[in-house]
Amino acid sequence: MTTPEPYSYPVDDPHYAQDVTMPHFQPDLFADSDLYVNMDAVRGREFLDKLLFRFGISGDQMVEQRTYKKIIFSGHRGCGKTAELRRIEKQAIPPGTYLPVFIALEEEVDLSRFRAEDFYILLVVHLIDLIRTHQLQVKTKPLRQLSEAILQGKEVVEELRTTLKNELTAEASAGVNFFEIIKSKLGFKAIFSGESKTSQFIRREVKENLLRIIQEFNVYLQEVRRALRQENQAQDLLFVVDGSEKVPFTLYQELFVQGANMIREIAANMIIAVPINAFYTIQDEPQASYDDAFVVPMVPLNKPEAEVAFRTLLAKRIRLEQFIEEEALHYLIQKSGGCTRQLLSLVSQGIGIGLGAPITLDTAKKAALRLQEDMRNLLSAEHIQLLKKGNFYTGDAAVKELLYSLVLLRYNGPDSIRINPLLEGLFETDGADV
Prior knowledge:
With 434 residues, the chain is an alpha/beta fold. Helix content is 51%, strand content 9%.
């Protein structure tokens, strides 16, 4: 299969313009095309500074941590969670402090078959990949012990040998390089996307022996830290886990609410991104106590810098003057509610409606109406009554649902939860929280 040519930004072909503004289009914002737009001037970076401070970072210096912290990170779909996590990985962490280990669930696993046990295997797989990438000299004994904690029988190795057509070396058959096999030979997704004997066996072993596996993993982590410091590459590791709205809500509950005590047993610093409805559920559960929690807010549109930032965001992807008239652009930005995903959706809809002709104000209004109709179809009678009352409390399950579906948007400051501007005028409220 031929790999498609990459886009050359900003694109000037209308078909490509619609492609690169689709909500599911997820380019590397920090690649050579540099599609990332810094929103600090309008959104503020208080959440980022506080997050880094929790990990002992002030300016370009790091204070050695005496405890391993687990931070929950969240925000609306399309608010920029992944962009900010990638920014932490690639820009925000001062060199020589933490070495980030980035795990993107949506890219690496079959989300429809993802299980809580798979999360722990992913941590190990990424750690081994980091060792290979950074050419760290680490002892193999901790990895052998970790493999043995999971592979206590021969049936998995036999299935892997069959699958790989006897390509395994004797050392790999003994389990020493089992995790490397997952990463480089078959791939994590290939093994865990089905219900093979291998995946069933591994998940069962992880579930039944989780505490022991975490303890062995912690020994291996310590060996990796020793190598990092000895070779002056970093002082510590930071796992950055980018979740996905496509992961079932119940799985987040199993992993990060019921399983919070096991997450805390891991001897590593972690940032764990979860959808906004899962975020508030975790916040409401006493047993799911994490070291801190941060939400990426929507961009407030009451500042002139906001329109400049969103214009820049679009201009990096498409030739703005070619595809959107000035009056229409202002309207679309206001209807976005400060949500990057929603703005891109509106623009993509507008390009499609006009078949590539410049988006006029009339076309922009048609695009907004289409998204409004899609959003209204998500509402139940309970939701409509809640929106009419205008009292939005995050402990309410219906409010969590509306936040998740972008019907309600969260900003910074007082009265921070508001109805999406696409739905403006549809609900007469009698409260003061809108």
